[in-house]
Amino acid sequence: QVQLVESGGGLVQAGGSLRLSCAASGRTFSTYAMGWFRQAPGKEREFVARISPSGGSRDYADSVKVRFTISRDNAKNTVYLQMNSLKPEDTAVYSCAADLRYDGTYQHWGQGTQVTVSS
After folding, report:
1. Which of 5, 39, 71, 99 is 20 to 30 Å from the Cα of 78, by its Cα?
2. Collapsing DSSP states into helix, strand and coil, what is residue 40?
């Protein structure tokens, strides 16, 4: 079992930055991939970014590419999402998730952290 706790959300003006953190516990962190997702009010959850167990491979949704950076610190059991040049359309609840099977599915989810970008 893996427990995930996000932090770092908040209110920011358009053009600003935030860094989200997701602390993991329960399994060896360096053995599984991690992802960030978001869900805006009235919309379905969407993929934001993904990072491989070693951190050597990263993928992003087209809507956040260049502006967002996913990273991980396996010594601290933490994955990060650095968000720059934020836009009002980035407003959502952001959740991290763990893919222990490394097959593109995610078996464990955090509760999420709210990010609100004002115009």
Report:
1. 39
2. coil
Identity of residue 10: G
Rounded CA gap, 11 and 52, in Å? Answer: 29
Q: φ and ψ at 22, to 5 degrees?
A: -140, 110
**Nearest-5° angle of CA 72, CA 84, CA 62?**
80
Report the chain's mean pLDDT, rounded to a whole number: 97
Can you give the C-alpha Rg of the chain in angstroms?
A: 13
Cα–Cα–Cα angle for 72, 75, 79, rounded to 5 degrees: 20
**Distance from C-alpha of 3 to C-alpha of 78, rounded to nearest angstrom:** 11
Tokens 């709210």 correspond to what residue? 114
Strand bridging mode 10-13 / 113-118? parallel
Residues of the chain with pLDDT under 50: none
Alpha-carbon distance of 102 to 82, in angstroms, equals 23
Which residues are CB-neighbours of 82 under 8 A, at least 6 positions away?
17, 19, 68, 69, 70, 71
